[in-house]
Design goal:
Structural class: mainly alpha
Strand content: under 5%
Number of strands: 0
Distance between the termini: 16 Å
Radius of gyration: 30 Å
Shape: rod-shaped
Helix content: over 70%
Length: 135
């Protein structure tokens, strides 16, 4: 999820929670007998102020975490690139061992399967590092 989307979801949730809290405060103020209308309006304005403060905090936390999310994404792609490179290293001796059977030998199928696995994981490893460098 993008940081902008997370901030939007948190902001909407805080806005709804502030609105509900304001309604509960207004309902509690109306339930008490002899409460002037000025106090009810004050409770509503306090609820709006709390909602604005919560939105400000969410925006500040999101701004603080944005650089860490970028660096974390780059590190994640690089780590995955290394993990995708491991099968290439593990299957390389098998491919070298069956290289003589690449066309018509008795281990032709083993050679082709090993080459296919290595090609897929090599592609995944290189593309992961490529994406990390583009970020």
């Amino acid at each position: 999820m993008k940081p902008h989307s997370i901030g939007r979801a948190v902001g909407i949730g805080l806005r709804v929670a502030g609105r509900i809290a304001g309604q509960h405060a207004a309902a509690g103020a109306e339930a008490s007998a002899g409460t002037p209308a000025r106090e009810v309006a004050s409770a509503a304005s306090q609820g709006r102020a709390a909602g604005q403060a919560a939105r400000g905090v969410a925006r500040g936390v999101g701004g603080f975490l944005r650089p860490f999310a970028r660096v974390g994404g780059i590190v994640w792609l690089e780590v995955m690139g290394v993990f995708f490179a491991l099968p290439v290293v593990v299957f390389a001796p098998t491919l070298w061992h069956f290289r003589a059977s690449w066309l018509h030998g008795p281990d032709h199928r083993t050679f082709l399967v090993t080459a296919g696995i290595m090609a897929v994981f090599f592609y995944l490893s290189v593309s992961s590092f490529w994406r990390a460098r583009r970020k």
